[in-house]
C-alpha cells in the first residue's frame, strides 16, 4: 500500500494544486479496485463511476462532500433494510428514512469581536 502524504501536505495540496490531489485520489482508487477480488471489481468500478459523476456536478468541495455523504447514507439505509428480516422480532421496526430539508432557515447570529465579548454576551443572554 502506498504511503499517503500527511494531512498537512494533503491540505496544502488541496489549496495550492487541487488537480494534483485529484490525480492522487484517482491513482489510489485505481490501485484499490485493481487489488480487489475479481467478483467485486465490476461493482466497485460502477460505484466509482457514480462517485465521479457526483464530483463532476458538484459546485464546490462542500457540495461534493454532501453529495457523496448522501450516497453513503442511502447505501447504509438500504443495507439496514436488507438486514431487517434477520433481526430478532423486537428490533424489526422500520427505521424512518431521514431526508434533509431542501431549504433551511438560516439563523442570524450577532457579530462578536472577541472571545471575551462572546463570553460576556452569552452570559448576559442566559443569566
Mind explaining what this structure looks like?
With 127 residues, the chain is mostly helical. Helices cover 65% and strands 0% of the residues. The protein contains five helices and no strands. Helix 1 crosses helix 2 and helix 3 crosses helix 4. The longest helix is centred in the middle third of the chain and has 23 residues. It is flat.
Annotate the secondary structure layout.
Blueprint: H1 7-16, H2 18-35, H3 38-57, H4 61-83, H5 115-126
Helix pairs in contact: 1-2, 3-4
Please tally the β strands and state the result.
0
Amino- and carboxy-terminal Cα gap: 56 Å
Average of the residue pLDDT scores: 83
Unreliable segments of 5+ consecutive residues: none
Radius of gyration, CA atoms, in whole angstroms: 22 Å
Number of helical segments with 4 or more residues? 5
Give a concise summary.
The protein has about 130 residues and is an all-alpha fold.
Task: List the main descriptive attributes of the protein structure presented here.
about 65% helix, 5 helices, single chain, about 130 residues, mainly alpha
Amino acid at each position: 500500500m502506498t504511503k499517503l502524504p500527511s494531512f498537512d501536505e494533503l491540505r496544502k495540496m488541496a489549496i495550492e494544486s487541487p488537480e494534483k490531489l485529484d490525480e492522487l485520489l484517482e491513482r489510489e482508487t485505481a490501485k484499490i479496485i485493481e487489488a480487489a477480488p475479481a467478483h467485486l471489481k465490476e461493482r466497485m468500478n460502477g460505484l466509482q463511476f457514480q462517485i465521479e459523476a457526483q464530483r463532476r456536478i458538484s459546485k464546490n468541495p462542500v457540495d461534493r462532500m454532501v453529495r457523496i455523504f448522501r450516497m453513503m447514507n442511502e447505501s447504509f439505509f438500504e443495507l439496514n433494510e436488507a438486514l431487517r428480516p434477520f433481526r430478532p422480532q423486537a428490533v424489526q421496526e422500520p427505521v424512518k428514512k431521514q431526508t434533509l430539508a431542501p431549504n433551511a432557515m438560516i439563523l442570524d447570529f450577532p457579530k462578536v469581536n472577541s472571545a471575551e465579548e462572546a463570553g460576556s454576551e452569552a452570559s448576559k443572554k442566559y443569566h
